[in-house]
Amino acid sequence: MRKKIVAGNWKMNLDLDEGLKLAGAIDKYFAEKPAEKGQVIICTPFIHLAGAAGILKHGKIALGAQNCASEASGAYTGEISPWMIKSTGAQYVIIGHSERRSYYNEDDKILNKKTLLAINTGLKVIFCIGEVLNERESGNHFIVVRRQLEEGLFPLTEEQMDSIVIAYEPVWAIGTGLTASPEQAQEMHKYIRELLKGKYGNECAKKMPILYGGSCKPSNAAEIFSQPDVDGGLIGGAALKKEDFTAIVETL
Ligand code: 13P
Fold it and tell me: Within a 13 Å sphere around the CA of 107, how many CA atoms are in the beta-carbon half?
């Protein structure tokens, strides 16, 4: 059985006090639950990481960052490297989010470099891929996703792929209220798994968690997550409210 995962991506929201309160509320909610349905991860802004690591006391919630530098250390003003992230107690980092790709011009090559550095530091990487609207409308979505995987991830060895979680986030569904239909999500997730099988073999393809992201909410999560190749979700806006986030986790 593949691991089910729900990860919250807080993006650039919540000040320190608000963020730590939310982390504490989520930790408390799951501490009182008898069984875990899957792995829950919260990916906070950098400044929340160390504080949140101290607050997530019950060991049920993993912690992640939303980006990292492509260099390990040195004169890179304003950057945060994977080992700094790891030193806070975080275990995950999101790499390749569409907002990083589009607003900060991060291309497949730099994303691969960041991914390798993060993995070599001992972090797990939530690697995001997904097409923009005109790529879907012109029927090029499979080509785009294939390129993102081939250039960004497939330079990794099979062993390194054990540190990867893939998140398929169609850009047209992010923060728009438009969700991919369960069929559209399943079709792309199946395609991603086939590409993994072609490159790394059946075992890697079968065990890779592939998350869906894009306007996931309590009302649509169950149907999307019930698709055979959808292993959970990467949640933006709905991860900022304890009730919505925990309700999404409960649909696993
Ligand atoms: P929304 O859930 O707000 O659409 O964001 C999805 C996302 O970008 C998660 O990384």
Answer: 1
Query: Over pLDDT 90: what percentage of the chain?
Result: 93
Amino acid, single-letter form, for residue 199: K
The CATH number for 55's domain is 3.20.20.70
Choice from 103, 171, 216 to test ligand 1 binding pocket (greatest atom count within 8 A of CB): 216
pTM of the model: 0.98
Q: What is the pLDDT of residues 176-211, one digit of tens each?
A: 888 899 999 999 999 999 999 999 999 999 999 999
Nearest to 249 by CA among 61, 64, 96, 83: 61
The residue contributing the CA closest to ligand 1 atom 2 is 236
- Greatest distance between any 2 Cα atoms in the chain: 48
The label of the residue with tokens 């390194």 reads 160
Atom of ligand 1 nearest to the CA of 174: 4
Identify whether 169 is a catalytic site residue: yes
Q: Which long-range contacts (CB under 8 A, 24 or more apart) does 55-59 make?
A: 55/20, 55/23, 55/24, 55/27, 56/23, 56/27, 57/27, 57/31, 58/27, 58/30, 58/31
Q: pLDDT, tens digit, for every residue of 135-151?
A: 999 999 999 999 999 99
Domain residues for the domain of 243 are: 5-249
Domain count, the chain: 1
